[in-house]
Amino acid sequence: MNTVVTISGGGIIGNYISSRLNANNISTLVIEKNSDVLDLAENVRTVTLNQYSKNLIEKLGVSIPCSEINEILVFDGEGSGKINFHSKDIDEENLSYVFFFNDLYRALQEKAKQRTIFGNQIEDIKENIDGQICEVLLTNKDKINSSFVAGCDGRNSNIAKLARLNINVSDYDQTAVTFTTRSNLQNNKKAFQIFSERGIFAAMPVPKNKEDATHTIVWSIENNKLDNMKNIDSYVNENISYFEKKLNIEFEICSNLLTFKLTNHYFENYISDSTVLIGDAAHSIHPLAGQGINLGFSDADVFCDELIKGFENSRKLNRKLILTRYEVRRKQMNLLMLRSMDFFVELFRSKNLMVHLARNIGLSGVNKMKFLKTFFINHASGKNKL
Question: b/e map of 280-312 (b: 16 or more CB within 10 Å)?
């Protein structure tokens, strides 16, 4: 078999890349270790796309239910500091959009299904002498001749291991829990985030196809507050009233609780010979701002952009130049976002009274400075694109 790009991982980002390149007459094959289209569980987990990411999937013809956010209210639960972000600050209709993970996954998988080899994994990558083509060996012993191997296979990337790239990992010592709720809130285009000793609590409107719910909750809790994972239900039920009082909203849980441990990672290099890491395979961050999926789409967009331009501008593909340009455009931006999220986690985790005072003054100060608010919103919305 021959193809330009072999993609490891048939998730959201891998399937997006396959469909985007296919639309530009660049051949791809997706290698997915699962045996077929997954029978996904109930809609609980959500992803929040900024306007730029939403535009990317719409250009592929993907149209699925979502909820709109035009205002985000951020509070320091232990003080009076707060920031209000509104779409009017950047002359846009909305700030971001909430999708169910399952809906987005299914829609993009359907787009790439005909180019996907299921029930397989990349076992080895052998570089040819000319440095432009590699041989990809699958677990079923099939071989693929390919110019690029794109690792879109998540945090424990098999491609990163095969490429022997150096990884840096940190543990937040937190557990995230997500679930959907019903509430008595009338205006459902608002999102809320509270930083407190009980955890980082975010409430966002659910997509419109979830008729029995109004909000999705993403709640990051310090592990030392949880004796074991069995008591997370009781912790949620005992502490959710604190956030209800802060927001003056009543929440009724109406789904299962999904949990996952929180860590971050990043690779010192994204590329090696024919291989390239994209999205969660290359980096991961704290979910407090919901930017992980958007960083993944930005990576995918830049990789596709560089590859498409490479085909347009040269008869002979310059693989090294394409991958280097991708790495230069994305690595520092992703690392900056990771460092920023880590800063906020530590800032609101601190029990130092002077830090408490400084962050309350800082939050309220930023709220009064329109140019700073506009900068933050433009960055989060994907407008500040290299």
Answer: bbbbbbbbbbbbbbbbbbbbbbbbbebbbebee
* 82: CB partners within 8 A, 6+ apart: 73, 74, 75, 76, 363, 364, 367
Q: Is 150 helix (H, G, I), strand (E, B) or coil?
A: strand
Cα distances (angstroms) measured from residue 315 to each of 311, 312, 324: 7, 8, 19
Of the candidate ranges 115-124, 191-200, 231-240, 365-374, the one whose mean pLDDT is the lowest: 365-374
Tens-digit pLDDT profile for residues 243-266: 999 898 999 999 999 999 999 999
User: What does the alpha-carbon distance between residue 88 and residue 94 come to, in Å, rounded to a whole number?
Assistant: 8
Region of 164 please: left (phi>0), alpha (psi -120 to 50) or beta: left
pLDDT digits (tens, 9 = 90+) for 260-310: 999 999 999 999 999 999 999 999 998 877 889 999 999 999 999 999 998
Question: Residue 205: pLDDT band by 50, 70, 90 thresholds?
Answer: very high
Residue 26 CA, distance from chain mean position = 25
Are the C-beta atoms of residues 111 and 20 closer than 8 Å to each other?
Answer: no
Judge whether 122 and 151 are in contact, CB under 8 Å: no
Amino acid at 245: K
Burial pattern 226-240, b for ≥16 Cβ within 10 A else e, equals beeeeebeebbeebb
Please write the tens of the pLDDT for every residue from 307-316: 999 888 766 7
What ranges do the domains of the chain cover?
2-169+262-381
Q: Exposed, middle or buried, 132 (CB in 10 Å: 0-12/13-18/19+)?
A: middle
Class of residue 35 by CB neighbours under 10 A (exposed 0-12, middle 13-18, buried 19+): exposed
Please name the CATH architecture into which domain 2-169+262-381 falls: 3-Layer(bba) Sandwich (3.50)
